[in-house]
Amino acid sequence: MTANKYSVLNTRVHNVDGYPKVTGRATYTFDVKLPGMLYGKILRSPHPHARIISIDTTEALKLPGVKAVVTGKDTLGVKQGIWRRYPELCDEQILTIEKVRYIGEPVAAVAAINEEIAEQALDLIDVRYEVLPFVDDPMEAIKKDAPMIHDGVERNVNVTRHIEWGDVEEAFEEADYVREDWFKLGGQAHMCMETRAAVASYTPDKKLTVYTSTQSPYYHQALLAGVLGLRESDIRVIAHYVGGGFGGKFELDAAQFCASVLSMKLSKPVKIVFTREEDFIATKRRTPMYYYVRTGVKKDGTFCAREARVFTNGGAYTGMGATALYLTGFFHSFPYKWKAYRYDGYRVYTNSLPSTSMRGFGAPQAMFCSEQQIDWIAADLGLDNIEIRRKNAHTAGYEVPGQATIGSCGLGQCLDRIEEWIKAKGTLPKNRAIGISAAGFMTGGIFNWFDSPYSFSSAVVTINVDGVVELHVGAQDIGQGSNTTLAMICAETLGVKLENIKVHSGDTDHCPADLGAWGSRQTLMAGNAVKMAAEDAKKQLLEFASAKFGYNIIYDLDIKDDWVHNVARPERGMNYVDLVKEALRGKDGQRIIGRGHYTPHRKGMISPAYSYMVQAVEAEIDVETGKLSIIGCTTAHDCGQPINTLGLIGQLEGAASMAAGYGYLENMPVEDGKVMNPNLVDYKIIRAPDMPECEIIEIDTFEPEGPYGAKEAGEGLTNPTAAALGNAIFHATGLQMKQAPIMPEMIVNAFREKEKGGGTP
Amino acid sequence: MEKQLLRFYVNDQEYELFINPKTLLVEALRDHLGFTGTKRGCDTASCGVCTVMVNGMAVKGCSVLAVQVNGMNVTTIEGLEKDGKLDPIQSAFLDEGAFQCGFCTSGMIMSARAFLNETPVPKDTMEIRRGIEGNLCRCTGYNSIVRAIDAVAKGKYRGVCDDSK
Fold it and tell me: A340-360: buried (b, 16+ CB within 10 Å) or exposed (e) per residue?
């Protein structure tokens, strides 16, 4: 790696929110307490599918301490959703009026002087239901005689997606070998450490303030306006610190909605915090899928054609699941060049908790199927599993037909470096093996089904008289470190020290709109907006410097490390702060303000840029018990120019932990529409002793679309781990695991089947 | 239920509370005294975000009643910093980036502090990992946290900050 040419970028700096976080000063929605605040609780459906006959709240209202009880009839009854451009996909009425469609669906909400009384009041609400037949599996729900979950939605098909290029039949004809497999992918809970929470405070002047744990304050401002009948700008959403998101906190949730409805009724602040159980049963989850994959290759390993049919368990409502349906189909082709490709996806409503986006956005499911099948094909044909990937790998400039153009691409180098790393490991003990998986991911989804009239990202840079820079961004820091990354981009661009930057985010009253923290958007989109705003401010400063210095106008001026100077003679110049003081005087006392924004144009269907990675997982299998241990996890990773070194490492290790959980721990069984393990005793996530050391091999690339050449890091790396783990099992034991998460009993059963002489499950 | 008098120390300050005996320690700290640095994340004593120290030992604040700590010394995250100086473990968390969303951080730091008090020289990183096994973190994958604890154990912060606790 070459020496760092930047002053701030690619250096190890403290997270700008670090001090409040390590001292307990950071205030989350969970910690907000307003004068006169009431506490809300939500009554939820015990049935997976039922018609509401009546709701009687009389007794609940009589309980001393209860201030209000609301049902769907107290609301505008708006069916909302995040796909606002498509009214038929706005299908969720929080506080449902006619029907409940999953266990845990909100039917009423109570505000009381404390949580205990609110909880007691729930028991006094009398709801009469007409229980209806239900269906909780998409393969059943799509059948002709299945119960209809939403009126008029035939066979419960919520959304279909089709992607195709090339002549698929002809390409299969050319193949020497064709293989087909069925896979089953489970759900996964986002399991943010801070459960869904909101404090809503409505005042009689028709202004509503909502503190909430969100990935997108702007989305919540706009969505609340729609369901409450308020002007967007009369709603202020505040999210100073957010205890995790991972794709689960940018749709409207019942905490935000019910707290707002109750607060509007009472003109008092109302706080609702989900219990951990509510967070498991009544939010949305990673989309469970059935995947059929048929692949044709030539004897030498050249990929000819692939066909995939996918049925996803949509649960009761659309949410972000429609996007996950498209993206799983797109990323299932990744990161390879297919002569012909066809994907048909069906998102099917069921009577279970809805499914949606979660870190990786449909791609981890796709990679689990694709990357394992590629290893099985390589084994069947006697080919090397790295060589077959190298032969078909994306390269810079490749066009995914009709979908995307690949800018920078370090996939080839990723494969080379992982191959070297594996060779250096030598022979492994019995029942231990290394599995690999390649993957790629988008750097900022370009979708606007939300129909935002605002730029995708915006930033304002204001320079005060003492040189301190106020950076206002709508980008949301949910722990991924966007405040730090954006502060670094701002400091680098202006040429000032990082200590000079103050970041303001998480407040719709004071920050420009931004679509929020999802789809790996913030580094590229918000980063480009910040860079533009900082360049604008810098230009104004340098105009003043030019007039002041009086050099020949052919000379370039610049600022670096707080020193404003002549580029040809860097010793000639002046201190940045002194220049700012004079420049403000020259502007009649106005502060210097720079503006920047980013909205993608002509960037294909998906994203302006793509990250690439190859991961090697070393795992050990206990053949008696089926227990898995991950010994090591090494990733060669191309995220373009690294910006925030420490944040990058944390993102990659965090992704590996969440993805490993998806691979072998985080089973979320749903029986008769009911989540069977809605607590942290029975729902297992990776704990410290389970986590392997993670080695990261950075691959140097430069992405022209990204700020300073940067691409996403941290979401994409959720994609390969479960597949790599499956491949490690295959190489250690010969077992082919077609279900995720891979639970011990599946391995034991697979061994048993194998001993019986049957095939693999 | 009849209220009871609780007299205890939080971060070296004596407090008296007249509370319902069912009140959990974490509720007394957060809701009665305003120490909101300590969080809550589950209802099953599984996640560790409510970890505080009671007489120097790590305790999950949701697993004991407030009245059980009568007469004892409770240390919360707010009490680790002394005279504006961070505890070494807090400095190490900053240096290693051992947090992301920060919601587990208070409990994690208290567990780490208690672990280091008991085990100043861990024999390997697995011993550190076992020491924080009761604390969940959904963001970091723990490795940066392990590096932070290891750095303090290896004496990186000796002389830089007060490591005598």
Answer: bbbbbbbbbbbbbbbbbbbbb
pTM: 0.97
Distance from CA of B46 to the nearest CA of A (A): 6
Domain residue extents for chain A: 18-25+456-598, 32-132+192-245+249-281, 285-446+604-755
Bond prior to B88 in cis (omega within 30° of 0) = no
- Neighbouring residues of A169: CB distance < 8 A, sequence distance ≥ 6: none
Delimit the CATH 1.10.150.120 region(s) of chain B: 88-153
**Is A244 in Cβ contact with B37 (below 8 Å)?**
no
**Chain A, window 617-646: residues with a beta carbon less than 8 angstroms from a chain B beta carbon:** 646
Task: Write out the residue limits of the CATH 3.10.20.30 domain(s) in chain B.
Answer: 4-79
Q: Are A205 and A235 in contact (CB under 8 A)?
A: no
Q: Shortest CB distance from B47 goes to which of A193, A246, A275?
A: A193
Q: Which of A172-176, A635-639, B159-163 has the lowest mean pLDDT?
A: B159-163
A32-132+192-245+249-281 topology per CATH: Aldehyde Oxidoreductase; domain 3 (3.90.1170)
pLDDT digits (tens, 9 = 90+) for B89-125: 999 999 999 999 999 999 999 999 999 999 999 999 9
Cβ contact (<8 Å) for A479 and B102?
yes
Q: Among A21, A485, A694, A715, which would you mutate to test the B interface (most chain B Cβ atoms within 10 Å of its Cβ)?
A: A21
A707: which DSSP letter? G
Q: Which DSSP symbol is given to A233?
A: G
Whole-Å CA distances, A178 to A420, A530, B107:
30, 49, 53
Q: Classify domain A18-25+456-598 at the CATH class level.
A: alpha beta
CATH classification for the domain delimited by B4-79, as one of 3.90.1300.10, 3.10.20.30, 1.50.10.10, 3.30.70.270: 3.10.20.30
**Nearest one of B94, B106, B30 to B66, comparing CA atoms:** B30
Which residues of A are less than 8 Å from B49 in CB distance? Answer: 193
Query: A657: which chain B residues are within 8 Å (Cβ-Cβ)?
Result: 140-142
Q: Is the dihedral of CA A633, A331, A703, A405 positive or negative?
A: positive
Contact A99, A127 (CB under 8 A): no
Domains A32-132+192-245+249-281 and A285-446+604-755 share a fold: no
Torsions phi, psi for A287 (to 5 deg) = -75, 120
- Chain A partners of B138 at a C-beta cutoff of 8 Å? 191-193, 244, 246, 654, 658, 685
Q: Distance from first CA to last CA of chain A, Å, rounded?
A: 45
The answer on pLDDT for A85 being more than 90 is yes
> What's the mean pLDDT in A223-230?
98
Task: Out of 1.20.1510.10, 3.30.365.10, 3.40.50.300, 3.30.420.180, select the CATH number for domain A285-446+604-755.
Answer: 3.30.365.10
Kindly report the CA angle at A420 between A417 and A421, in degrees rounded to 5?
85
Name the closest residue on chain B to residue A688, using Cα atoms. Answer: B129
Give the span between the Cα atoms of B138 and A478, in whole angstroms: 12
Condensed to tens digits (0 to 9), the pLDDT of residues A396-433 reads 999 999 999 999 999 999 999 999 999 999 999 999 99
ipTM of the prediction greater than 0.95, yes or no = yes
Alpha-carbon distance of A60 to A122, in angstroms, equals: 7
Dihedral angle computed from the Cα positions of residues A343, A730, A622 and A679, in that order, rounded to the nearest 10 degrees: -10
Instruction: Indicate yes or no: CB of B77 within 8 angstroms of CB of A23.
Output: yes
Options 1.10.150.120, 3.40.366.10, 3.40.1180.10, 1.10.10.1100; which CATH number does B88-153 get? 1.10.150.120
Classify strands A610-621 and A432-442 as parallel, antiparallel or unpaired.
antiparallel
Contact across the interface for B36 and A24, Cβ inside 8 Å: yes
